Each structure stands twice: as C-alpha cells, then as structure tokens.
Amino acid sequence: MTRRRLSFLTPLALLGLLVGLADLSHGSTGEDEDYYMQELLTREQYNQVQMLEKPVASIPDRHEHRGQNPAKKVPKGKEEGSRQTDQTTADAKSECPPMGLETLKIDDFQLHASSTKRYGLGAHRGRLNIQAGLYEDDLYDGAWCAGRDDPLQWFEVDARRLTKFTGVITQGRSSLWSSDWVTSYKVMVSNDSHTWVTLKNGSEDLIFSANREKEIPVRNVFPAPVVARYIRVNPRSWFNSGNICMRVEILGCPMPDPNNYYHRRNEVITSDDLDFRHHSYKEMRQLMKVVNDMCPNITRIYNIGKSQSGLKLYAIEISDNPGEHEVGEPEFRYTAGSHGNEVLGRELLLLLMQFMCLEYLSGNQRIRHLVEETRIHLLPSVNPDGYEKAFEAGSELSGWSLGRWSNDGIDIHHNFPDLNSILWEAEAKKWIPRKMFNHHVPIPEWYQSKNASVAVETRALIAWMEKMPFVLGSNLQGGELVVTFPYDKTRSQGVTREQTPTPDDHVFRWLAFSYASTHRLMTDANRRVCHTEDFAKEDGTINGASWHTAAGSMNDFSYLHTNCFELSMYVGCDKFPHESELPEEWENNRESLLVFMEQVHRGIKGVVRDLQGRGIANAVISVEGISHDVRTAADGDYWRLLNPGEYRVTARAEGYSLVSKKCEVGYEMGATRCDFKIGRTNLSRIKEIMEKFNKQPIRLPARPLQARRSRERRMGT
C-alpha cells in the first residue's frame, strides 16, 4: 500500500494558512473564525530548547551542604547557574537526547553504584522522575542513595557502546518523609570501566552545581561533548540535613556502529511518515487544520468550550458524514491532556488523526470501515493551560507535576461530581428502581452552582458528554503502563484500595484487555516496573479502586451519568517523553488505539420505535442480570456494549408497554441488531384524553344521564 507522505505536505499546507483560508469544511462554526487568522510559529521558535545554564563551581555554604568543598573555579561564561534559560538553536542541535533512564530504554543491568543504602534505594532506582511507594518499602524507593555519605560515591551508566555524552539531568529523592538531594557533582567517563577521566575546566576538575530541592530537575550541559562507553556522576556535596540520593538522566547520542547487535535488537522503527514532534497550542491547531484540508470530506474541527485562560478546547471529528449523527452509528471519543504535563497522550491523538486521514486516502480498508461505520471524536488537549507550562519547561525539565493542574489549581480528571455515593446510598435505602434509576444519575444541585470548585474545562466536558450520544471512550494518561476501569472509588468508606466492580465488570475487563494485550509492552511479563506496581501480572489492567481510590473521576461519572463506558489508558512510564521517543511510542500504542476503537461495535444495537415507526427518545434498555441500563438517543437508536452470549433485553419508555426479547451476541466483530416496537399503554391513553380536556371529568349531556339512572332504578326493582 502506498502511503501519502505528510512530511512534504505539511509545510505546504501550513504555508497555505497564511493566505487567508477562511472557513472549515463540514459544519464549521462561527466561533472558530478567529482560528484561521493565527500567525504561524516559525520553525526557529519551535526548535528553541529550554536549557539549564552551566554551573558555578564555588565553595558551598557550610550551613547548607556537607561533603568535600568544590573549590574549583569555572571561567566566566561557563559558570552560569543551574536554572532554565533560553539558548540558541545551534546550542540545542549540539545537545543529545536522553539515553532513556526514565523511559526504561536503559535497563537495570546498565546501572551501577559505588554503594547502596538498601536494595530499594539501589542504582536501578536512580532514574529521573521515578516515584516512590507511599510507604517507601524495601523494594520501591524513589532514588539511588549511597550507603555512605562521602565524596567517594558514584552512580554509573553503561551505554554498552561508544556514545557522545553531552549532559546530565539530576533530581533529588522522591519521598514524602525524607529530604535528600545532591548539590554538586563531578562527571567521569571511561571506555573500559577501569580507567576514568574526569571532565576538566582547563587543568582543574569541572564541578557542576546540582539541585536546591528534591523535585525540580536541573540540567547541566558539558562545555564540549565527550565520547566514551561509561559515564559516572560523582556527588561532591549534598543537602546538610539529608543524604547522597539522586535520580538521573544522561544526555547522549550513540555513535554509529552497524555491528552493535544490542542496539539493533532493541531499535524500534516506524514506517509511518507522520509529524513526530511536540506541538505548542498554535501548532496543534495548525496541524488539525492541515489534516482537515487533506481530508475535508471526513473531518470537522470544532471546540467544546474554553480553558480558564481562554484557550479553546479543540476537537476533530472523523466520520464519513462529519457534523451529523447517523441513526445506528455509534459515537466514540478519545480525550487526552486532562493533566497538562502528561503529554504523550496528546501527541498520540495528533498522530492518530494524521494516520487515519492518510490511510483513508490510501484505501486502507480497515480504516475506511472504521470511518464509515463510526463517528469518532478526538480531543487532544483538555488542559491546554497546563500543557503550555510543561511545554515551556521542556520534556526533561517539567518534573513530575508542573502543568498537571488547571490554571486555577484543579485536577480536571477528578473534578467531576461524586455520583457513586449518591447511587450507593440509594441502593442501601432500596430506592432503586422506585425513586431513582440505576443509571443516568442526576448531577447534584450544589455542583451546578457558580460557587462550586469546578473547573471551566470540567463544565465544558460535561456539556459535551451530555450532548453527544457517546458509547465508548477513553482518556489517555501518562506516567504508567496500565489500563484502569471503573469504579475508581472504593465502596467501603476509609479504604484506600479495594476491588469495586461495576455491574458491567466483565465488559470493562474485556475492553481494558483489548487495549493492553495489543500494546507492545503492557502485558510483557519481562518488562521493568515503571515505578512501584507490577501491572503486567494483571495482564496490564486493573480496577481503578483497587489501585487507589479517587472520588469524582471522569470514568465513574461517564458510566453513571451517561451511556458511555469510559476507561483510562496510561500509555507510557514517561509523562513527557523527548521528541526522539515519539516514533517508538507511536509504534507501542498504534494498534491498541485502533483495536479499542473497534470495540464500540461489540454487543447489541437497535432502534426503539412506536407502532407508527417513529423513534422514541429516552427509552430505557435493560439487560437481565445487569443492574445498569442505557437509554436511547434522540432518534430512538441505542447501543449496549456486551460480551458474547445470549441476553434477555427489555425496552420500556414512559407511556409505553414494555417489550422483551432474546438477543444473541456472537464472537465476530459487529454489534447484533436488536430492534423494538412498543405501543402506548391504556393508562397513557387515558392520561392523554384527560389532558386534552384539561384534566376535567368528561360530562355527559343531562337528559341522557337522567334516563340512564331511571333505567338502572327500574332494573333494580
């Protein structure tokens, strides 16, 4: 199959934006008009890299640091501190990408240390942004910590081939209880791990300033690249109330070596020629417009609202009739970026929309079938305000949390109303189904008040979820490799971890496994744990509440308030991977993204009509044995996700008689058709007649009534 190449189309299409393209194809709205007049970012602006200044090698404050005093001086111009500053494009090009301590490309056997406090603080834990367990047990602590606090300690990385090293990034220890970080260090390199050469400033050892606290990463770029196989970081001073503890990333470029079997075995190459880079907000919109221009007949750009700072929340629809809901066609959604610093999901959705457009044009039958049978919505950036903060810092320097929250400090993903408690209380009081339904649980009034702590992005999401008849959806997260499914909140009060299944637990487990099992790494029993949990033992899936309880999640809200089954896909250990990692991450997730979309066609579907053939909106579809119902859309069509089997299904609506039938779901892909025709009840007809007469008794003429009473008296006698 010949793929059309985006690499040469993209610059032309972007340049075309400058000549005044004035409207979007298929259903564009007036509020998007300002979108086309945006000025393009130059390539030079995009390529600017946030780099840390080179350190001042000076004697540390004796009250602040311990260890050997780094008395070596660095000449002016090479001594610039340890915080971020803009550098030139030329500097950025000379800097190598991360070698992969954070992304696990560097395996545990490549990490060594002079000594270790205990196993859980071994060299294998000295990875940038690695997180400790809540209780910091012996296996999963948040850094490498030396067994002794003296200037003879070191942390070593074996690149397993000659590598051009250009810099080091460091953090302190991830811990709720301890404060440990290194404040300065030397760097040494070797080709044989026996003879070591220390980086010099003239004739003196070069000492780099490191961290001032434990979470913010600090990058130091070497004055000149060095080529070697091994590299060591040698702490020289550390926080006076703590110990020698570090999390590290090494910046390095492998030297060309076609005979290096290890490198070739682990190399992942993509054949998809897509735009593999991180996109600012403006670049994201421009890329969406490029795709819309290339595939105007199957795409539509729209926005669902605005962020706290006023940035529009843009979505792209992919369908053979964009802008229209087709009766019988299910609606699917992917969202990403509710945590602004979890960037991989955002870029995966931008890659997915490019891929689907190009493959549709090239005649890929699988993609054509998806587009023609499904209405797909992609919302790449739920929290653009948070993303811009992380994007400005850069992929290695945003840390674990910069940009996570909305501008007003709210975690959008967990900002939805807690409908679980409302439902469970109603079940305990036996109000279901007499006083309350087991589905479409209403939003409490307090949540809808203006004074409620609800992000504007959350309100926009809720309005979108209520408007569109979504059947299946997923939000892409980062920082782990696992798929989570509802419920996310534990049913037992005060319990932080507890298996809390929904009535559709078997369906959710299948949906989760469909993504995890087709991901390149999630179910690999030999893969390294990202942080503290070995999810591969559970086939890469877990019930959200059994991982950690969280009230008001998007997943639980979607299930309890709408028809949509929602899951969370944690698509990578690294929340914000370097641009060079995007092709491999795309290969890791591409098949999973497609397979999960295809699951929207599993189960039963149909239309509920009255005896005159008109669709009935808001009719309830119940499946025997599953205490969770769904409702029909405006045209009377419905979709009910189910695993293979035979089910007794009932359709009912207010004022209509209920109808039941058996519906069988097979193993082949494609929902089973299960339509219903229901008639009005006698009671509803009587009510209709009474309403016609303004709810007054129907009065008969006086004389016939008197005559009837006389007859009745005579018959009585």
TrEMBL record:
Pfam family, one: CarboxypepD_reg
Alphabetically ordered keywords of this record: Disulfide bond, Glycoprotein, Secreted, Signal
Residue ranges of every copy of the F5/8 type C domain listed in the record: 94-253
Stored SMART domains: FA58C, Zn_pept
InterPro entries: CarboxyPept-like_regulatory, CARBOXYPEPT_ZN_1, FA58C, Galactose-bd-like_sf, Peptidase_M14, Peptidase_M14_domain
Segment forming the signal sequence: 1-27
Region of interest (Disordered), residue spans: 57-98
Main localization category: secreted
Localization of this protein: Secreted
Any one Gene Ontology cellular component term annotated for this protein: extracellular region
SUPFAM superfamilies from the UniProt entry: Carboxypeptidase regulatory domain-like, Galactose-binding domain-like, Zn-dependent exopeptidases
Transmembrane segment boundaries: none
BP term (GO), one: proteolysis
GO molecular function: metallocarboxypeptidase activity; zinc ion binding
Domain Peptidase M14, chain residue ranges per copy: 277-600
Family that this chain belongs to: Belongs to the peptidase M14 family.
Task of the protein: May be involved in cell-cell interactions.
The name this protein goes by in its record: Inactive carboxypeptidase-like protein X2
